[in-house]
Design brief:
It contains seven helices and four strands, in the order H-H-E-H-H-E-H-E-H-E-H. By secondary structure, the protein is of the alpha+beta class. It has one domain: NADH Oxidase. It has a four-stranded antiparallel β-sheet. Helix 1 crosses helix 5. The protein is globular and about 45 Å long. The N and C termini lie far apart (35 Å).
Length: 172
């Protein structure tokens, strides 16, 4: 799928079919994540690849009972790794660049999944401590996003967006 088609087709899907996701597709998604840009090329993030049903259930509970997470065939949990970025960039690396790195990586995963015919939705509403507990992550990591992935069981309508002229401030 063309990049612009993937961007245009991406929707937040909260109902998954249950069909298994081919390991080759998961590998392509993770490869795209590995190619994502990061501050100083430090890749100051960690990804937890979750397929275990009880762990998916724990992630759904940690995400304030967003049960669709449990329906997905897998979820990727993106965590910022502040210490990894602080080595080169100090406090700004820890507080900002590591979060940006994890965010960019998740966005790449989301678009890669869309281009492969898979569905996702970005989940940012969760308890940090409960997500860490669900994936057995250390306190040194900051959960940034949970990305459930599977085949869609719904086709939501396109939602309205701000116009580009409303969104962009052009500096002459």
């Amino acid at each position: 799928m063309d990049f612009f088609d993937a961007v245009g087709r991406r929707r937040s899907i909260r109902a998954f079919s249950g069909a298994p996701v081919d390991a080759e597709k998961v590998a392509k998604i993770l490869g795209a994540v590995n190619d994502a840009p990061s501050a100083g090329n430090l890749q100051a993030f960690e990804i937890y690849h979750v397929t275990n049903r009880s762990c998916l259930r724990a992630l759904a509970r940690a995400s304030f009972d967003q049960q669709f997470i449990e329906q997905a065939q897998l979820a990727l949990v993106f965590c910022a790794h502040p210490a990894r970025a602080s080595v080169k960039y100090g406090g700004r690396g820890a507080s900002l660049y590591s979060v940006q790195d994890a965010t960019i990586a998740c966005a790449y995963a989301q678009l890669a999944a869309t281009s492969l015919g898979l569905a996702t939705t970005w989940v940012g509403a969760f308890s940090d401590d409960e997500v860490r507990k669900a994936v057995n992550a250390g306190q040194d990591l900051l959960p940034v996003a949970v990305l459930p992935i599977g085949y869609p069981a719904e086709t939501p309508e396109l939602t309205g967006r701000r116009g580009v002229d409303d969104l962009v401030r052009r500096i002459p």
